[in-house]
Amino acid sequence: LSAYAILYNMIYLLEAPGFGLNGGAGAVVGNALGAGQPLAARRAAHCALAVALAAASATTLALYVAARHADLFGWYRADDASTALARSLLPELCACVFAANLSWPLLGIVAGAGRQRASWPAVTLGYFGVGIPTGAVLAFARPGYGFRGLFQGAVLGLSLSALLNLLLIVGHPLVPCAIDWAAAAAAAKSR
Questions:
Q1: pLDDT tens digits, residue range 115-129?
Q2: Residue 175: strand pairing partners
Q3: Residue 125 gets which letter from DSSP?
């Protein structure tokens, strides 16, 4: 459990840029749609995605470099075994920080477009359909995985949820419920 505390404390700290972009992206996209400007809303969504990608990349790179050159995990004063386990999960931690910094702005864009209902299948499938079952199988059916398997399943679920929400925003033939920006602007105007 100490390794869990170390990893999730770092995640909560390092996902702050994405969390901040959540509110900003949702507000800018929602304001543009409310003003009846679907192209501006789409452009704002794409701009928010670019900023989120840059923030996710910078945060993840900073974490990786800092963890390789300083004893970030040792700052938590956990026992040696927990610190070693957390340290060994640095690649998964980096993937989680990257996905979280993308996921928050994606959810903000979806909310700003008024399409939260279209997003719940992505979150449900990502976490409950894939992430949790995969983590459970890895943790309990694969010898030696334990906590590593649970954490890998959580990272997989978060990443899949982010990918599906990205497809919802940018559109894809496999995503029939993708955001129709003109229809979203018309719906916002009618409210």
A1: 988 889 889 999 999
A2: 172
A3: I
